[in-house]
Write a structure and sequence with these properties.
The chain has 335 residues and is α/β, with parallel strands linked by helices. It contains 10 helices and 15 strands.
């Protein structure tokens, strides 16, 4: 399975700048790149040749095409172009979305479309946030809170130009929307590429733990809400699991949660032990009605001593989310 990074972010947050910087970094060599518009790539500096009307071949062994025909089609087109060029398979994929795009449909495709889930594995969602206009975006752009809520990594851009008080308010807002996401600052696209890698559950060792980093001050369990229109509030909850779960019990719980949470569940992710092989945990991932097949990890990530599940929902009563996670924790290890 080829790791795939989803790059999203607020309008004007600097995705194009970061994208072009990443394409020059050796860490993203031999990368399949899917962009919202082909013009987002700095072709004057990066273009080597055009393999056809829809695919660009870039310096560093990267191939690039547009998202306009759908993600599965784009990944398939890039894979064929790579094979036809007589080159080895891609080492990874990087998908850039429009600043006005809701990222949930792409996440659903990655989980539910067999043309994708047999070929690629989500390595992380990276969301760029404008350090100056981020608060206004959260207030005025309907998709901005969703983009922040589903991120594994939040990158604050233009933070060197923002005033300290405004940046502090933005940080608090982001913590309310997504307390478990790591946060970094980038200036003019200057961000070590390796910080964008290994955000997913299958990364080995220390990096896998980044997928479920607990927010500061909430080591055991927590909940937050971020109000954007009352009933449309985004709420998050997290719980630690003291022991292993029966596989059938976990499967039933996930099915029930999909029924209760449904379209309200923006994202659920967890790393936990199962009773059939507690030394090798599994990573679970769900978006709305779709649950990805659990991924078996070879060992526990460094820094993660026990299981943890985090859920982010919109328009779902927080108490319902807490009860669902609390029930699961009570079943872990027969507690």
């Amino acid at each position: 399975m080829v790791p795939l990074t989803l790059l999203t972010g607020f309008l004007g947050s600097g995705k194009t700048t970061l994208l072009n910087a990443l394409l020059r970094d050796p860490a993203f060599a031999d990368c399949g790149v899917v962009v919202n518009e082909i013009g987002a790539v700095g072709v004057d500096q990066l273009l080597v040749e055009a393999s056809d009307d829809t695919t660009l071949v870039l310096d560093g062994g990267c191939f690039c095409c547009s998202l306009q025909d759908g993600l599965a089609e784009a990944v398939g087109r890039l894979t064929r172009a790579r094979r036809d060029a007589g080159l080895p398979p891609f080492r990874r994929f990087l998908v850039e979305t429009s600043g006005a795009a809701n990222p949930l449909p792409l996440l659903q495709q990655l989980i539910g479309d067999p043309r994708l889930n047999r070929r690629v594995l989500l390595d992380g969602v990276v969301t760029l946030v404008d350090g100056i206009l981020g608060e206004a975006s959260l207030r005025d752009q309907p998709e901005a809170p969703l983009q922040a809520a589903v991120a594994d990594l939040l990158v604050l851009t233009k933070s060197d130009l923002a005033d300290a008080a405004g940046l502090d308010r933005l940080e608090r807002s982001l913590a309310g929307l997504n307390p478990s996401a790591a946060r970094l600052s980038a200036v003019s696209g200057d961000l070590p590429a390796e910080r964008l890698l290994g955000l997913g559950p299958d990364a080995a060792g220390r990096r896998a733990g980044r997928w479920l980093e607990p927010p500061a001050g909430h080591p055991h369990g927590h909940d937050h809400d971020h109000r954007h229109g009352g009933e449309d509030a985004i709420v998050t909850a997290s719980v630690e699991l003291p022991g292993p779960l029966d596989p059938a019990l976990l499967e039933g719980w996930l099915e029930e949660l999909m029924v209760v949470g449904g379209a309200h569940l923006l994202r659920l992710k967890g790393v936990l032990a199962l009773s059939d092989d507690p030394g090798r945990p599994v990573a679970v991932h769900a978006v709305q009605h779709l649950v990805h097949a659990p991924v078996r990890l070879e060992r526990w990530p460094d820094g993660l001593a026990r299981g943890r599940v985090t859920a982010i929902a919109r328009g779902l009563d927080r108490a319902t989310l807490e009860r669902a996670l609390g029930w699961l924790a009570a079943q872990a290890g027969g507690a």
